[in-house]
Automatic annotation (TrEMBL):
The lineage of its organism: Bacteria, Bacillati, Actinomycetota, Actinomycetes, Kitasatosporales. It comes from Streptomyces spectabilis. CDD domains: MPP_GpdQ (cd07402). Signal peptide: none annotated. One of its GO terms (molecular function) is metal ion binding. SUPFAM superfamilies: Metallo-dependent phosphatases (SSF56300). Residues 4-195 form the Calcineurin-like phosphoesterase domain. This is Phosphodiesterase.
Length: 260
């Protein structure tokens, strides 16, 4: 039996004159997900769901995703306001029916674990001891079942200095927590607006590109300005106990886009 997770990130939905392009980008990516065969078990969006964290932006987000027919899970990023996110989505399927921004959802073939790495008024990320202890308990519940851990901030440097300065600041603590368990299939992140793959904590870390604008590959000390490069998302597939990751083009694909 094949299981899969569609991994989208950083839609940065907003309101006002600039609202059209990011909303269209997310809707188009979700429509592309629906054309996959077989369809994935779920979709996860790894943060920066909106651009300014306002209640109005989260209402726009609900309008875009509200009729999406597959399970869809939201992750908070540094552009998000967890309180406003919860005010709009607490207790819904988009937050695993929970009233907090970190939660876990049990699927037959895997456990999806969502962490909240946001720090108020900071672009960087932090999990903290209590959330890492919670994660440890969640991972121990189904030790024989693969776990996919999702957060916004990458826990290691990715080679883009500007973004590395605002990564997860307790990445070593996360690595220690994950290292106590042998069932970590993937660690999924966003924030970078580029696809990046690296070894992490005995598993594989992947960051998904943005459904709106990509970051420039600034491997020096420059600012990685946003670029209108092609959009895509990642598809993490488990078949015969091996996890593989595919990049699925969206904006420049000839594939159909489903409506929902």
């Amino acid at each position: 039996m094949t299981s899969s997770i569609a991994h989208l990130s950083d839609p940065h939905l907003t309101t006002g004159p600039l609202a059209g392009a990011p909303a269209e980008g997310l809707y188009r990516a979700l429509g592309r997900v629906l054309t996959l065969a077989p369809q994935p078990d779920c979709v996860v969006i790894t943060g920066d769901l909106v651009d300014r964290g306002t209640p109005e932006e989260y209402r726009v987000l609900r309008e875009v995703i509200g009729r999406f027919p597959l399970p869809l899970h939201l992750v908070a990023g540094n552009h998000d306001d967890p309180k406003a996110l919860l005010a709009e989505f607490a207790g819904t399927r988009f937050l695993g029916d929970e009233a907090q921004a970190h939660y876990a959802v049990d699927y037959p073939a895997f456990t999806l674990v969502v962490l909240d790495s946001t720090v108020p008024h900071s672009p960087g990320g932090h999990l903290g001891v209590s959330q890492l202890e919670w994660l440890d308990g969640i991972l121990a519940r189904r030790p024989e079942t693969p776990a996919v851990v999702c957060l916004h901030h990458p826990p290691i440097a990715v080679g883009i200095p500007f973004l590395d300065g605002m990564r997860l600041d307790d990445g070593e603590g996360l690595a220690t927590a994950l290292g106590r368990h042998g069932n970590i299939a993937r660690v999924l992140a966003g924030h970078v607006h580029r696809p990046v793959t690296a070894a992490f904590a005995g598993s594989t870390l992947t960051t998904a590109p943005s459904t709106h604008l990509q970051s420039g590959l600034a491997l020096n000390d420059g600012v990685p300005n946003h670029l209108p490069e092609p959009t895509s998302f990642l598809l993490h597939v488990c078949s015969d106990l091996a996890w593989v990751t595919h990049t699925v083009p969206v904006s420049h694909a000839v594939a159909p886009i489903a409506c929902f």
